[in-house]
């Protein structure tokens, strides 16, 4: 770890409120998201094949959304999203580099997870409008599937991103297929030479592949 990174980590940790709890942060986000998904799922009844396409569309839209928001707001300065840029490029990418991707204690989760209030914003501004609009214009099932997909994408992003900052070979990586691959892709993204150019997807690198911004780890030539 470079001295600059270690110095930043010390300053960042010193600025965290003594009342902050990483586990409570994670539990809050998971509880809100899971509760909303359970509610949405409880509204489903005799879902048709066409209605299931709403969920597929929502997940695909979520993949494009995470890519676009990460690339455009997380790594490009735009005055209305100044706080997002500062928290992502300024804090997250200064705290974690390609040579040190690991958090040390649960208090470091503050720089890994989104702020606890953001899930409420996503539900209020994206999830619920689609839920009511599709519920009125298409069907109750369509609205519920939209809400399920939006919140599910958010939780999946948090989970996969959290796993990206776990040690290589962690039991979660061994248990869930694909997590170790996403962690390797995310490590490349944390190389400051590449962070504005490649690997913006966190859950699944579909949009990166479509847009030509997917970069895999370089293979060491066999001797």
Give the tags.
9 helices, single chain, 223 residues, mainly alpha
Please tell me about this protein's structure.
The chain is mostly helical and 223 residues long. It has one domain (3-211). 62% of the residues lie in helices and 0% in strands. The protein is built from 9 helices and no strands. It has helices spanning 3-14, 22-42, 49-73, 82-95, 118-137, 140-164, 171-175, 179-189, 206-211. Helix 2 packs antiparallel against helix 6 (140-164), helix 3 crosses helix 6 and helix 5 (118-137) runs antiparallel to helix 6 (140-164). The mean pLDDT is 94.
Describe what is shown at a glance:
The protein is mainly alpha-helical. The protein has helices at residues 3-14, 22-42, 49-73, 82-95, 118-137, 140-164, 171-175, 179-189, 206-211. The chain has one domain (3-211).
Helix/strand order: HHHHHHHHH
Strand content: under 5%
- What is the helix fraction of residues, given as a range? 55-70%
Q: What does the radius of gyration come to?
A: 19 Å
| Integer count of domains | 1
The major sheet is characterized as: none
> In terms of structural class, how would the helical and strand content be classed?
mainly alpha
Low-confidence stretches: none
Give the CA-CA distance, first to last residue: 29 Å
Round the mean pLDDT to the nearest integer and report it.
94
Principal-axes geometry comes out as globular
- Count all strands and give the number: 0
Number of helices: 9
Helix and strand arrangement:
Layout: H1 3-14, H2 22-42, H3 49-73, H4 82-95, H5 118-137, H6 140-164, H7 171-175, H8 179-189, H9 206-211
């Amino acid at each position: 770890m470079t001295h600059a990174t270690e110095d930043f980590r010390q300053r960042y940790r010193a600025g965290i409120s003594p009342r902050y709890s990483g586990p409570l942060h994670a539990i809050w986000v998971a509880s809100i998201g899971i509760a909303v998904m359970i509610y949405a799922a409880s509204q489903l009844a005799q879902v048709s094949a066409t209605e299931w396409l709403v969920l597929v569309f929502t997940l695909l839209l979520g993949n494009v959304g995470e890519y676009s928001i990460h690339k455009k707001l997380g790594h490009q300065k735009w005055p209305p999203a100044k706080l997002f840029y500062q928290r992502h490029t300024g804090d997250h990418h200064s705290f974690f580099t390609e040579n040190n991707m690991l958090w040390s204690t649960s208090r470091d989760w503050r720089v890994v997870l989104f702020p606890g209030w953001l899930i409420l914003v996503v539900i209020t501004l994206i999830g619920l409008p689609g839920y009511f609009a599709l519920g009125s214009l298409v069907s109750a099932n369509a609205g519920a599937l939209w809400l399920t997909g939006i919140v599910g994408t958010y939780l999946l992003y948090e989970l996969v991103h959290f796993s990206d900052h776990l040690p290589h070979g962690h039991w979660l990586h061994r248990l869930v297929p694909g997590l170790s691959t996403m962690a390797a892709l995310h490590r490349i993204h944390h190389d400051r030479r590449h962070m504005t150019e490649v690997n913006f997807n966190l859950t699944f690198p579909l949009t990166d592949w479509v847009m030509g911004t997917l970069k895999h780890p370089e293979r060491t030539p066999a001797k």
